[in-house]
Amino acid sequence: MLKGGELTVSIQFPSFFSFVMQKYNSEILRILVEAGNEGLSVKKIARHVHNACNTLFSSVSFDEVYTYVAQYLIRNSRNADSMIARTDVRGNYRINPRNEDSQQLMLRFQDECDEKEDTPKPSVDQSLSLFEDM
Predict the structure, then answer these.
(1) Would you call 91 exposed, middle or buried from its count of C-beta atoms within 10 A (0-12, 13-18, 19+)?
(2) What residues does 107 pair with on adjacent strands?
(3) Taking the model in full, what pTM does it have?
(4) Which residues contact 39 (CB under 8 A, 6 or more apart)?
(5) Residue stretches of the chain with pLDDT short of 50
(6) Which domain holds residue 96?
(7) Where does this protein have compositionally biased stretches of type Polar residues (predicted)?
(8) 3 state DSSP class of 84
């Protein structure tokens, strides 16, 4: 597109955008499940999402992530039966314990944590001996 002697290119990536937003959504829910009943502030949730989704090859600013997380939490905590609920502390959110979907999500997360704890890794001594025959 040519505007006043400048060349501007407009490229849209709807599938990539939706993939990134889906990753943000799942990270937000995972973080809230880990936080438990106390919940977390929007800033802490945004920091966790930023750290989880920011890579060397796809750098995203913290302000963009914070804006998305804040809008997502507000949008998904409006109803009393939604998956996310506000806590008594201003700006803090948690998983709604009265919602059936959120209860299922918490159970699934606990099962995943239990599986990780049940499979201990065998410890192998990989240190080098100073007195080994040469």
Answers:
(1) middle
(2) none
(3) 0.67
(4) 32, 87, 89, 92, 93, 94, 95
(5) 1-2, 9, 11
(6) 17-102
(7) 124-134
(8) strand
Number of domains in the chain: 1
CA–CA dist 15, 33 (Å, integer) = 27
CA dihedral sign, ordered 7, 10, 16, 21: positive
Mean pLDDT of the chain: 79
Q: Is residue 71 part of a domain?
A: yes
Element (H, E) at 6: strand 6-7
Q: What are the tens digits of pLDDT across the range 94-127?
A: 988 887 777 777 777 766 666 666 666 667 767 7
pLDDT of residue 115: 64
The contacts found for 44-48 with CB under 8 angstroms, 24 or more apart, are 45/69, 45/73, 45/93, 46/70
**CA gap 74, 86 in Å, rounded:** 9
User: Is 90 among the domain residues?
Assistant: yes
- What is the reported pLDDT for 48? 93
Which residues are within 8 A (CB) of 12 and not within 5 positions of it... i.e. 6 or more apart? none
Q: Report helix, strand or coil for 41.
A: strand
